[in-house]
Amino acid sequence: MRRENRKRKSGFTLIEVLLVAGILAILAAFVVPALFGQATKAKIDIARAAIGRNGPLAKALEAYKWDLGRFPETDEGLAMLMMPKGQADDERYDGPYIKNDEIKDPWGSSFEYRSPGEFHEDEYDLWSPGPNREDDGGKEGSDDIKNWIVK
Q1: What is the C-alpha to C-alpha distance for residues 31 and 53, in angstroms, rounded to an integer?
Q2: In this predicted model, which residue has the larger pLDDT, 84 or 143?
Q3: What Cα–Cα distance (Å) separates residue 114 from each residue in 50, 94, 133?
Q4: What are the percentages of helix, strand and coil residues in the chain, rounded to 5?
């Protein structure tokens, strides 16, 4: 008997490839939603930190008040914090107090500002429209991220 010297071809069969693809798809079905949930939670935490008492917006507003003796009015808004020093009407203005990108929340919307505040009457109300990017005015039950607690 004569043995033929056949070379076996190396590689994966179609069944093996489909099996691995199926396993990866199942894993992705569990992992991807969990990652997106964590990303949203992280953005909410970033927005809360930005408007909190030690956040960059709060610090800029405090610096503005320290120089001018008041917070910017609602119609002046957060834009007053970014104005170059030479463009302000008041010679006590020592800005800019904040960079342009710091008035945007993690979803790319501008933070909302009201002074005097409805909830902080002697100071200001500051909030983000949140993940849905719709300003609900910080009402109870909305996804807005705000610097006050609705009771």
Answers
A1: 35
A2: 84
A3: 16, 22, 18
A4: 40, 5, 50
* C-alpha torsion sign, points 122, 99, 80, 46: negative
pTM of the model: 0.68
Which CATH number is correct for 17-146, 3.30.1960.10, 3.10.20.90, 3.30.700.10, 3.30.70.100?
A: 3.30.700.10
Q: Coil, strand, or helix at residue 113?
A: strand
138 pLDDT higher than 60: no
- Please tell me the distance from the alpha carbon of residue 124 to that of residue 133, in angstroms, as a whole number: 21
